Amino acid sequence: MIQKDVDLQPFNTMTIAARAKYFCAATTREELREALAFAREQQLPILPLGGGSNIVLTGDFPGLALHVGLQGLDFEPQSDGVRMRAAAGENWHQLVMRSVEMGHGGLENLALIPGNIGAAPIQNIGAYGVELKDTFEELTAMEVATGRLVTFTAEDCRFAYRDSVFKNTEKDRYIICEVVLKLSASWQPQVAYPALQQHFAQASQEVDALTPADVARAVIGIRNSKLPNPVEIPNAGSFFKNPVVDASLYSRLKEQNPQLVAFAAGEHWKLAAGWLIDQAGWRGFQKDGVGVHDRQALVLVNPGHRCGSQVVALAQDIALDIQQKFGVTLEPEPRFYP
Ligand code: FAD
Ligand code: EPU
């Protein structure tokens, strides 16, 4: 059912109040197809919504906000692992924990990432040394222009750090309906990420003896110690991507800042934007109801439930300061609408 003039505040974890001209919650592919047909007839732009944990609403949306609530989860055992087929509206963290409880490894590093499965391929979600692409097999999406179902393999998706074809050539052209993941029976714990390494060293736990549940527990503990729970403190996770810079800029910065946190990325270097923002003095900053989280400077918070333009103004001030202090350009991670 299409509703008119709907408040989107309950549908984004930044709790920004903004209205959608039209809104539809689709729980079946047929409802999705009908909603797309309506948008086509009315020539409306579409805002697909999952958990709303990676968007910033900068004003009212003059089109159709389409909540993708398709449900269904299926585990298909195979000789070399398990195939998981999950509908777009299933909750990501619950899927991770289901797989961990069943003893399957592969998703445990991605525990506690908010949001739904349908959004996971958009930016190739990643955490603690693992990305969606590591277990991704294929997805089914509905073409916005026709309602036709199309399959995308991992190669088609062109996954990269916080990136996929759905943010580039295929932007706004598809609604993801279902994702298939393959968890391999020959699982090995991925615990090279510094925070995880530290955790298991401190706990004197042998890496070889770890189970997927041990890793999930560690990831949940680390995340809870620094990332704000959006239910308590409105936020959209990391507000900026970690910038990838060339070797000459990296060398210059490292010379000036011996403590600089950076990871080699081929011939380039990925810098910890949170470290830069922290060093620039922004961690814990609060003004007029918006601010920077006091335990993770990469996360902007909106405890005052302020409007998107206030959040964006703070982000611009931070990005300008980082540009001036370090010569590094920060790009936002969440998508801004409209
Ligand atoms: P939404 O915010 O609803 O949508 C995100 C984008 O995807 C929008 O452009 C939307 O239009 C589009 N979209 C949503 N569903 C569909 C669909 N079915 N078809 C087509 N397009 C769709 N991300 C990480 O990668 N790693 C992290 O560790 C991480 N930690 C986070 C921690 C916190 C506290 C928060 C608040 C966010 C974090 N995020 C992280 C970001 C966010 O959780 C992920 O990007 C997640 O995949 C977003 O899911 P969602 O359902 O909330 O998407
Ligand atoms: N750091 C600081 N001060 C801060 C924040 C970070 O010094 O205020 C330092 C940390 O001490 C650490 C380094 O920066 O040495 C990296 O910090 P952290 O491990 O917290 O990770 P991050 O690079 O800030 C990225 C992702 C997160 C993901 C974590 C774990 C991006 C943009 N963010 O954050 O993803 O959960 O790594 O893998 O890549 C998200 O995308 O929304 C998100 C939360």
SSE map:
Blueprint: E1 2-7, E2 19-26, H1 29-42, E3 46-49, E4 55-57, E5 61-68, E6 73-78, E7 81-87, H2 92-101, E8 126-127, E9 130-131, E10 136-143, E11 149-153, H3 154-157, E12 174-184, H4 194-202, H5 212-226, E13 235-238, E14 244-245, H6 247-256, E15 262-265, E16 268-271, H7 273-279, E17 286-287, E18 290-292, E19 299-301, H8 308-326, E20 335-337
Parallel strand pairs: 2-5, 3-5, 4-20
Antiparallel strand pairs: 1-2, 6-7, 7-12, 8-9, 10-11, 10-12, 13-19, 14-16, 15-16, 17-18, 18-19
The structure holds flavin-adenine dinucleotide and uridine-diphosphate-2(N-acetylglucosaminyl) butyric acid.
Flavin-adenine dinucleotide binds at residues 13, 47-55, 68, 88, 113-116, 118-120, 122-123, 125-127, 175-176, 227, 230, 235-237, 335.
Which tags fit this structure?
338 residues; alpha+beta; Uridine Diphospho-n-acetylenolpyruvylglucosamine Reductase, domain 2; Uridine Diphospho-n-acetylenolpyruvylglucosamine Reductase, domain 3; Uridine Diphospho-n-acetylenolpyruvylglucosamine Reductase, domain 1; 3 domains; five-stranded antiparallel sheet; four-stranded mixed sheet; 8 helices; 20 strands; 26% helix; globular; binds flavin-adenine dinucleotide; binds uridine-diphosphate-2(N-acetylglucosaminyl) butyric acid
